[in-house]
Amino acid sequence: MEKPLDGNRLPSTVGDRVIDKPELPAGGISNENDVHTEVIAGEMHLKRGRVGKFEVFSDEAPRLGGTDRYPSPMSYLAMAVGF
Hints:
It is a single chain. The chain is of the alpha+beta class. It has two domains: about 1-30, no CATH class; about 35-83, no CATH class. Helices cover about 10% and strands about 25% of the residues. The protein has one helix at about 75-80; strands at about 5, 30, 35-40, 45-50, 55-60.
């Protein structure tokens, strides 16, 4: 079996990209993401997530003890499935 391609080193030139090819690589594509999450102390259900240069916050509805200032974790999950 072929080794997977490194997803962080794929070509970005149109025509050379993996999505421009008629078939995906036989070994697939590997992709690693370092994601850091934390609960904000003293803020009930407020959570922060970081990946690369991006930062997102998550909260829960008041009926679950949150303040509803940010989307819930399940809302982010549903959006991820849609993307």
